[in-house]
Amino acid sequence: MVNRSPLSPAINPVEENRGGLIGKPMNRVDGPLKVTGRAKYSYEYRGLKDTAYGFIVGAGIGKGRISGIDTSRAEAAPRVLAVLTYQNAPKQAPPHPRENGANRFDRSEPFLFSPDVRYYGEPVALVIAETYEAARHAAGLVEVRYVKDAQAKFDLAASQSQAYKPKGVNAGMKTDTAEGDFDGAFAAAPVKIDVTYHLPHEHNMPMEPHATQAVWDGDQLTLYSGQQIAATAHSSIAKTLQIPPERVRVVTPFIGGGFGSKVPLHAQAVLAALGAKVVRRPVKVAQTRPQMFANTNHRPECLQRMRLGATKDGVLTAIAHDVWSQTTPFDEFIEQTAAFSRVMYAAPNRAHRHWGVILDLPSSDIMRAPGEEPGSVAQECAMDELAVALDMDPIELRIKNEPKDDPETHLPFSSRSLVECYREGARRFGWSTRPKRPATLRDGRWLVGYGVASAMFPTYMRPSAAAVRVNADGTAVVKMDMTDIGTGSYTVLTQVAAESLGLAPEKVTVELGDSKLPKSSGSGGSFGAASAGSATLLACEHVRAQIAQLATKDRRSPLAGADAATIALRDGHVVAGDKSEPLSAVLSRLAPAGVEGKGEHQGAQQPAKYSSHVFGAQFAEVGVDIDSGEIRVRRMLGVFGSGRILNPKTARSQLIGGMIMGIGAGLTEESIVDPRDGSFVNHDLAEYHVPVNADVPQIDAICLEEQEPYANPLGIKGLGEVGIVGVAAALANAVYNATGIRVRKFPITLDKVLGGLPDTGST
Amino acid sequence: MMPFTYERALDASSAAKAAAQPGTKYIAGGTNLLDLMKLEIEKPAHLVDITRLPLRQIEATGDGVRIGSQVPNSDLAAHPLIRERYPVLAKALLAGASGQLRNKASTGGNLLQRTRCYYFYDAEKPCNKREPGSGCAALQGFNRIHAILGASDSCIAVHPSDMAVALTALDASIETLLPDGSKRTLPIGDLYRLPGDTPHIETTLKPGELITAVVLPAPPAGNQTYRKVRDRASYAFALVSVAAIVRVDAGRVRDARIAMGGVAHKPWRAVEAEKTLRGKPASMASFAAAAQAALRSAKGHGGNDFKIPLAQRVLTRTLADVAGIEGAA
Lengths: 763, 329
Prior knowledge:
The structure holds two protein chains of two kinds. Chain A is of the alpha+beta class. In chain A, helix 11 runs parallel beside helix 18, helix 14 packs parallel to helix 15 and helix 17 packs across helix 18 (about 725-740). The N and C termini of chain A lie far apart (about 60 Å). In chain A, the strands form seven sheets. In chain A, strands 3-5-1-13-10-11-12 form a seven-stranded mixed β-sheet, sandwiched between helices. In chain A, strands 18, 19, 20, 28, 29 and 30 form a six-stranded mixed β-sheet that branches. Chain A contains 19 helices and 30 strands. Helices cover about 30% and strands about 20% of the residues of chain B. Chain B has helices at about 10-20, 35-40, 75-80, 80-85, 85-95, 100-105, 105-110, 120, 165-170, 190, 270-275, 285-295, 305-325; strands at about 5-10, 25, 45-50, 60, 65-70, 175, 185, 210-215, 225-230, 240-250, 250-260, 270. In chain B, the strands form three sheets. Chain B has a five-stranded antiparallel β-sheet with strand order 4-5-8-6-7. Chain B has a four-stranded antiparallel β-sheet with strand order 9-10-11-12. Chain B has a three-stranded parallel β-sheet with strand order 1-3-2, covered by helices on one side. In chain B, helix 5 (about 85-95) packs antiparallel against helix 9. Chain B is globular and about 60 Å long. The interface of A and B includes residues 627, 684, 687, 691 and 694 of A.
């Protein structure tokens, strides 16, 4: 590699990969624990005496005020220990300010602190009982009277005219950016697209519901809680309860999915802590699936106006991407949806702008690829519409507008393989066989169509620390508060550590998910493997340096006198040139207590010298039933350029998982708000349709070979989110290709194409 | 969940006697009842478990078949007699729920499952079915999945079963045992009620009346099929489904039995369509006319307006398929 990050160590065992563990499709090291039920999730901690159970009572109005609560029947119910309401809940810090501070997830999150109801389903009481069933039953006995706020607003389109301009958008991005003269260039463009896409609220809905067990030992609080980022959950609960952080511990070794929704500290965690304090017993609180719709994350509904101006031969001259998305009066979250189009295509005249629409709904928040996923729908569907208007192949249109540098910042790309992804994907997918005209390919009663779209996700890095200990017996332990939300963190960190220390993976144990361990990025923003992995690599390098000092200065070692800088750890040996000594021999003699090293990576270089993102191309083939309008995916292929791949097996799982979630965004998932009261109507998994196995066809994801010299010492780019990006657009474009029907309101359900299909009797 | 007591029935007659007590319900697979109990929509004080009753036989009765009410859905779908003689039933069963649910769900329980209306499931919302007189939140609410036929101003919910739609087309009968020890047999069409102004009363069963068997007459001549249209490929309730049995002879439709799911408060026998079709040439025009007849009295409520053309299209196509008519004119 010609260039390297200044934060990278002089010797980089990951780059050298002499043990061959980097890039090996290793099985998950935590797999056996999971399939045998020994991996404990937060609700499953047993052996804590006298554990009591809390059940949340949610508000039955959308916005207003509690005018009276009668808890007497609930309190009198069998086995009930306490009922908490705003009238008797322990004191907490005031709610965080509406606008985000330095870190959206490190802030106070009180509940039951006021008679005001901010959204439908907001907790208004917590019933604690000796059994879950007793708590749940008594929850139904809490009587709450409300005064509704008649001015409450729940409908995005109806409130669009009252949109406001936020100071910034999620991920620290700018609200608006512009270059050149969009209006002039668009007016002058010979070919124009001016369309609006409407995307619904969506919910993250991980398999494991949000659940917490809180245990007070004197004034020490331990929270067993599925949290993607232990450190912010830790400081957030301390802030909320107004206790010193050192008196709190968050334990989260296994997490049954999150997709962003377990980054914030949610109601069940705070209420478990409050409840346990009041009843002086451990308290478990799990949100039910319907409660999760109100009290965890959702991706906000948005309207996106997309305007593209182009020359007749398909060169983009103007891009404008205007986004209106839902936020709330009490918590500003503006999804960075127009950020996608800032990075994708060259055009000298551009505008990318966000507005917030304040509605009295639960706070919108991050969901897998916040910003990039919805933003890709507008940009990539509009590109398809432009390709149709130009009568041009949609892949060639994109390649024609490939930028020379980042169109927004004009920094060079650290690596960008979008064109290669399209070329390779087109070859593998058989793109040349696609119907050139819509509604021309039939397979029995199916209308068949192909679609493509681009995927992109930024390569983020967060400060992370790791502690590594190598024992005299040649085993090693890696410790950090990093989490594994099903992504494979345990496995890839094992690979990085084992490769760096020259040990077999079986000799390495990785301990994660505990706030008492060194602070790391946690899981979110696809930064986990890069951030935590870099810290692990650096920690291992410190260990290697110490061992090198010991061995080269010991006259009994065959390595005595060798240059410490050339010492490598390989195959369980300490090696210099052709001399070597078993690691366990060196340590038993010179450091019988083992050697410890701590590694810290400071995160991304500031200011950035490169623009670093994963790029990819999504290919989809759909069938649309000519009679019913049912849309079924037939094939999907994602091709990505994402630097070095630590583990092709876990990487592929992340990518196809994202792509499957993208099927939901394109075709099935929609959280419907009842405009009368602001509740989510279809609030369970029978009616909120995530794709099930039968919806997932032949699907594959591949990663091209790509050198990423700058993003981080591992040379990797995160893959947790990019898989979902572009899928909904590729599917929409395929539906158009199959039917000639352009649907701009998502998800694309059969009722939206039915009216455009040919008469069933005549075909 | 409300506290309740539980007993395991040893024989059918004592079960029926026990279940005649107010506040008592039968439990079999529990795949619907337990969900409803957790939400306190169903609040039985006492449960009579009938899963161990000797009602698990599928037996030929001359040309027909008797199905014990405790036969699990998956066993029923896989049974050779059903697959050979009543493919419409096997297909309908396999179109419903998921493998795990079908393993637990019983034949009798499937018949008696309750609507999936969002508002019925949400105790905070008005619902005449859950709380008579409280109103219907679906009428002016989000009603994409709701009824287009036979609904009332009190209730526009639909019956969720796939199996019952096939049984309706097959002219099945229900055998029951009453608490007084007497037995009766009623046609499946008489089991269910339209909502009218009493949508909380869904069947004609009397307190404690136990479904012991479903009896199928000899399979009607002709081809059978079941077509289910839904928002995802599995584990989604029907937006519209069609069970059709059509006999074509010498180019004419001699007999047609048609039932639809996802459109009404009960499995909907499309009598007008059947009448329209009988004796007509087996052509797309006839099938389209029959579908039009089937939906003549249909009424949308906004969100579900699309179901009317959808049902018409799917019915037309399904009839053509089952009659073996190619679509291309």
